[in-house]
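Q: Here's a chain of 172 amino acids. Please give me its 3D structure as tokens.
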Amino acid sequence: MVTPTGILAAPLAKLALTIAATEAFQAWVGAANSVEAEQSIYLISAPKGAEAPYCIIDFTDDFMRERSCLKTGVPFAGSGNLFAYFGGEVEAALNDTDAAFSFLNPMGAILEELELLSGAVLIPSAEHPQGFSYTSFDEIHLMELGRTDEDRRKKGYDAFGAAFILSVKRVS
């Protein structure tokens, strides 16, 4: 696997670390810690046969690099929108409303923790010896919510997916 580094790939990896750091995401994917939770997060696309629950992180069309001020030596930083898609199974016997909330309740807990972590600094630890600052969000938009079609549900598979656009600033 190629390690994401540099000014274009790092924002995706940083968002993955931020999501994996939430206890709600760790609980949702059945991980004991953030390092285990990172195994359920994919950058750009998920491999064929990826098991739910998972998260896919990607760019949107308007991610950019911009200078925070015109002072010489001040670095550019990334800003714009990143895409996060969450996919997870739900109980096939549930009606649409109950299935939606069985999926949305954990999503809400994850987003609530992301809001709390937004821009916070992680002190170096055994898991992350370098430390880093979490991704800082200005806005989080739910763009799409969908359930498996009726034919697949009849065959015993049922899942929900939600696509979020996360407006980020000052990502390096």
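Q: Can you summarize the key feature?
A: The helical segments are 6-20, 23-29, 34-37, 96-117, 150-154.
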